[in-house]
Structure formats: C-alpha cells, structure tokens
User: Fold this.
Amino acid sequence: MTDAVRALRSDAARNRDLLLAAAEEEFAERGVDASVADIARRAGVAKGTVFRHFATKEQLIAAIVTKHIAALTAIARAQHDAADPGAALLEFLTAAADRRRQRDLTVLMSISAGDATVAQIRDQLHDDIAALVDRARAGGVIRADITATDVFLLICAPVHVVENLPGAPDDLWRRYLGIIFDGLRPEGASPLPRPAPEWT
Amino acid sequence: MTDAVRALRSDAARNRDLLLAAAEEEFAERGVDASVADIARRAGVAKGTVFRHFATKEQLIAAIVTKHIAALTAIARAQHDAADPGAALLEFLTAAADRRRQRDLTVLMSISAGDATVAQIRDQLHDDIAALVDRARAGGVIRADITATDVFLLICAPVHVVENLPGAPDDLWRRYLGIIFDGLRPEGASPLPRPAPEWT
DNA sequence: CGCTAACGTGACCGGATGGTCAACTTGCTA
DNA sequence: TAGCAAGTTGACCATCCGGTCACGTTAGCG
Assistant:
C-alpha cells in the first residue's frame, strides 16, 4: 500500500528481535497478562523501547502471532510433496503440535484475530492445509466429510487437552493426537451430527 | 472439619446466589480478568458485599468451579444405569459439553486447581467417569487402551476446538465430539504412541 | 415492638499496568 | 570524523483492580 519502510538501524533491528523473543517467552510463561515492563527487562531494554517498535501491546502480540502462523505454513508446505498423503497430514499435525507444546499462543491468537495482517496470513495457512487435506481425502486415508477448516481447528486440540493435567509428561499430547487422528480415518466412521463450518 | 457454619440470613443467602450467577456470567463474557466491581454491579450489590461472602476473588472462582464440577458429576451419575454403555458415555460427553458451551470455565478451573474442595470433588467426578468408561470398555464399544483420565481430559476438547472459529454455530461442537468419539471406538484404531497418564 | 448481631455500603488504599515524552546516546553517512 | 537523524531511556501519568473498614441498615428473635 504505502512505500517500503525505512531499513532499521542495526541496534534497532537487534533490539526488535530480542523483544520478540523475550515477549514470546514471557507470554508463554505468564499468559497474556505478562507485563510490558517484564518483557522489556527480559530483553534487556527499557520499557520505552518496546513502544517504539510496537505502538501498543496488541501490536506486539500480533507480530508474534504472525511469526508463528508463518512457521505453521512452512511446516505445511514442507509436506506438500510427500509421498504418502496420510502420513503427510499426520506429520503436519505432529510438527504443528510440537511447535505449540512449549509456548501456547492460542490466547494471543484470539486477541489479534481482528488484525488485518494476521487474518491474511491465517487464510494462507488455511489454503496450505487445504492442499494437504484434499490429497489425503482423495487418497482415501481420511473420511470424505472432513474439510481443511476442520483440520485447522483441530491443530491445537491435542496440546490443549493435556493442559488440564498439571505435571503431565511433555509429549502426552501425542496420545491425543493419535486419538483425534483416528477419528479422522474412514474406518468405522459414524456420520457427523453437524456439517463442516464455512471458512471466512 | 470444623463445626457446621451458621445459617445465612435470608437476604445474605439471596445475595450469595445473585453473586454466583453474576460472577458466572461475567467470567464467561470477560474471562478471568472480569473485575470484582463489575460482578458486584451485575449482581446489584456493592463491592464490599462480594468480599463478605468470598474472602478473595480466588475463593469466588473456586465456589463457581465446585458448583460446575458437581453438575458434571450429576450428569455422569444419570448415565450410570443406562442400558447401552456406549450410548451412555456419548450421552455424558454430550451433556457435559452442552453445559460448557455458553460458559467456558476451563480457565477458572486451572486457577482453583490447588483448592482442596475442588480437588476432592474433581476426584469424585473422575471416579464416576471411570464407572462409565469401564462399562463401555467391557462392552467393547470403546478401545481397550482408553482410561477414565483420557475421557476426563477430553470432556472440554470439542468446545475448545470451536472457540477458535469466531461466529461458529452454537452447536458446532457436536461435530468435533463426533470426530473425537469416533477416535475412541475400537474399529480401525491404531496403536497410541504414548501410555495413558496417571491420575493424581 | 425493640434490640442486636449479621449484613450491606462505598469511600479509600497500595500497587501494578499500559502508554507518553523530553532529554540523552549512538549508528551511520557524507 | 563531524553532525544529525534514528534510537534509547526512565521518570512520569492516568487508570484500574483487589482488598479493607468504619459506619449505616435490616432481618429476625424474644
């Protein structure tokens, strides 16, 4: 839309990265209520610097969310040309959940749901998931009534399930991913009571 | 432990109920950060009254959580003697999710996880779920490697899945409960990558 | 009734938080 | 290397929140 943004000064670029990393950790540990002051301290800068890079706390969150959705998109594309469509979809869900394990950013996502950039990159992720799902469906390894939106919504389910059990093993989510993925298989599938939701 | 608590005065009892209801709504709408002042306003009382009934905000949350876990226990027991063990388990999960649909209290639960009363009534719920799960497993309608703890953890999964899609139909969660329940069925089940978690 | 213990009230407090800004420092270019 | 724009700083502000408390109000018993 507007012209390209001016290149950041070297120290500013480094501080921006430090801030994003620090904010990610802080949000993962303390939740959305992590304070900007703590984030700044963790990054080794003053509070004012945070607001130079991100006008509001919400925009900082949006930046983190954007980065993570982009990472999921990359994971999806890495499976794009895999030989086995079923294994590709499972591998995507596994890698996505694994990435989410340590830093649950779901709460952050819902906050920046209104952000235009986030919405756009999220649509892109949806498209890449659709490619995986279509191939799997065509190959008959998942049931016919499963859509990309279904898979999109189910990405974080295994990780969330485990969160309700304090002190659970780190990789317990794999168990529930197994259960859910079995639910996507055509063998012994019962008709679903509701149609798949529309995207957008 | 201590002797029975003094009976509440009539107006106090009514205000307590009003407060619990108002707090439930407020927490459901605004999340854990709903302010005590707003809750008091919604209940039509002054802020001081809130703290007369519940020493801290955490105790107010614990009271709500206790009420809701008790409701889930009642739902489980209602299916205790049902004819079809598979239908009984599905019916429990459906009723439990339905109860959770409008007011998601998962965040509240994790806050009051340390509360002794909450822990006790939660163990009770686990026991009642175990009865349902054992019957279903014995009947061969769910796979042999599913435990009561699995089901306990999966209760809120369908509702949570839908939360990531703003503007979704009210009963979309039924679709994902269908998928997950299919994942619990023995037909076409693949071995799970991790053992069931221990309870306690 | 009338009395009192239980209850309700809302002003108030200490602390924390997101955000601002004028003064200062530093990377970069010419 | 000099000069300046870009970047950094931390004190400061307005606001909000959980929790307290001295005082006014009321239910319910005798």
